[in-house]
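Researcher: Quick test of sequence recovery. Tokens follow.
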């Protein structure tokens, strides 16, 4: 028979699990919103009014008229029909609605667990951080959209990278909580830093760096400038590095250089994964064999998807798959580190 504490923990687990899936879906929808150039279709931040989509032709024409005022329409999509506008509008609309759902779905149960004293002390701070990041994410989302409404045809890739980075941080914290609740034998265990923790810290850091670079590539459409692999138009280095100064080598506005860094961090992650595998074998940490297998599996799929996406002229479905597996790879590395310290 379950004790009251176990019942509370089980209920807490299902809440966190559903939150995980909602945010996973949110990341996928957000990626597709970006890939379909739908993110600027709603030019106002209507927290309450925006809950309902346009219901009449008059409403639709109003929102369409707002879209016609921004550079993206004038320079890229001049002549778009109302029916075509509805498609991109709904992508952004569902993205925003899902954000509202996630916010309420996390806030209300959090308040319930806290005020009924059913929230374990161990998870109070992580849940509070998640709630703060979810609220921040909404603000960053609008801050990102606003960057594409005046002088640009797309959003700032820097702001896009922050938006994606925060999403990955949120889901990583939630995933860590899920792992911890499932591993109840260590429920009250104090985690002691292990000698080789830094190896896994670096692994996680590399993965998140690659996520940021991936957002740069997406935001700049940098996947469309060099669509050959393994070389970049018959050269290892992009043309942008020719006769460039040291400062120009870190110009993250440069499409070719951004793609170059994204490629090469991927190569380095592959090499580093091999090193982690060697470390696991040498130290005979057998309980990490299965978690590391998933890291390798997702890494291999991610590399293949990255290459195929590139040479397919950034096919939307392949690009979406590439983003999905970047998330799965991130979570597999988080899982690897969790298993290492537990």
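Model:
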């Amino acid at each position: 028979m379950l004790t009251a504490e176990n019942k509370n923990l089980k209920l807490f687990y299902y809440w966190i699990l559903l939150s995980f899936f909602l945010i996973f879906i949110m990341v996928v929808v957000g990626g597709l919103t970006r890939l379909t150039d739908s993110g600027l279709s709603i030019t106002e931040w209507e927290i309450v009014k925006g809950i309902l989509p346009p219901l009449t032709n008059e409403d639709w024409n109003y929102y369409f008229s707002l879209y016609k005022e921004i550079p993206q329409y004038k320079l890229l999509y001049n002549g778009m029909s109302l029916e075509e506008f509805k498609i991109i509008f709904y992508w952004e609309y569902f993205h925003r609605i899902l954000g509202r759902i996630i916010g309420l779905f996390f806030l209300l149960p959090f308040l319930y667990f806290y005020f009924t004293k059913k929230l374990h002390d161990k998870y109070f701070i992580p849940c509070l951080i998640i709630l703060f990041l979810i609220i921040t994410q909404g603000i960053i989302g609008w801050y990102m959209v606003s960057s594409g409404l005046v002088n640009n045809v797309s959003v700032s890739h820097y702001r896009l990278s922050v938006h994606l980075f925060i999403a990955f941080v949120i889901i990583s914290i939630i995933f860590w909580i899920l792992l911890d609740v499932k591993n109840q034998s260590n429920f009250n265990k104090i985690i002691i830093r292990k000698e080789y923790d830094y190896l896994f810290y670096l692994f996680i850091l590399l993965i998140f760096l690659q996520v940021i670079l991936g957002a740069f590539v997406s935001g700049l459409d940098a996947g469309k400038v060099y669509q050959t692999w393994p070389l970049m138009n018959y050269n290892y280095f992009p043309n942008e590095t020719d006769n460039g100064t040291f400062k120009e080598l870190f110009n993250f506005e440069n499409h070719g250089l951004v793609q170059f860094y994204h490629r090469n961090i991927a190569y380095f992650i592959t090499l580093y994964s091999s090193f982690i595998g060697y470390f696991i074998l040498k130290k005979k940490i057998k309980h990490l064999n299965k978690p590391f297998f998933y890291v390798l599996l997702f890494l291999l799929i991610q590399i293949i998807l990255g290459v195929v996406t590139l040479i397919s002229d950034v096919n939307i479905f392949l690009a979406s798959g590439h983003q999905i597996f970047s998330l799965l790879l991130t979570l597999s590395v988080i899982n690897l580190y969790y298993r290492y310290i537990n």
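The longest helix spans residues 82-115.
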